C-alpha cells in the first residue's frame, strides 16, 4: 500500500492511496493524516480510486481519520472511491457518515 499527500491550498490536502487498505496500511494512513492535521491541513480529500481492496481495519482507519479531522475543525471527504471502497462503505453503512465526491478536486470546491 502506498499513500501520497499533495497540499492544494493553505488548509486542504489530497491524500491518494493505492493497493489494499487493511490493518497494516491503516497505520500508515493514520500517520499521514495525523501529520497533515498537525501542519494545519485539516480539510482532507481522500482519493480512493486506487484502492483494490478494503477490510474492516481499513474502514475503521477512515472513521478514525474523519474524527480526528473534525476535532481539528476540518473534515475528511472521500473522492473517486473504487468499487471495493463503495462496497465496503455500503456493507458497513458508512456511506451515511462520509461525504463522497466524484473527484478529489471537487471535494472542497465551494
From TrEMBL:
Molecular function via GO: anti-sigma factor antagonist activity
Taxonomic superkingdom: Bacteria
Secretion signal span: none
UniProt cross-references to CDD domains, sorted A to Z: STAS_anti-anti-sigma_factors (cd07043)
Classification via PROSITE patterns: STAS (PS50801)
Cross-referenced InterPro entries: STAS_dom, STAS_dom_sf
Stretches that traverse the bilayer: none
Domain annotation STAS: ranges: 2-110
Protein name per its UniProtKB record: STAS domain-containing protein
Amino acid at each position: 500500500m502506498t499513500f501520497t499527500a499533495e497540499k492544494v491550498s493553505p488548509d486542504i490536502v489530497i491524500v491518494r492511496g493505492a493497493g489494499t487498505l487493511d490493518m497494516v496500511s491503516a497505520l500508515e494512513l493514520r500517520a499521514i493524516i495525523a501529520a497533515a492535521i498537525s501542519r494545519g491541513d485539516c480539510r482532507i480529500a481522500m482519493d480512493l480510486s486506487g484502492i483494490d481492496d478494503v477490510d474492516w481495519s481499513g474502514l475503521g482507519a477512515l472513521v478514525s481519520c474523519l474524527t480526528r479531522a473534525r476535532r481539528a475543525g476540518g473534515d475528511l471527504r472521500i473522492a473517486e472511491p473504487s468499487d471495493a471502497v463503495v462496497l465496503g462503505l455500503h456493507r458497513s453503512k458508512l456511506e451515511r457518515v462520509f461525504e463522497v465526491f466524484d473527484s478529489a478536486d471537487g471535494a472542497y470546491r465551494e
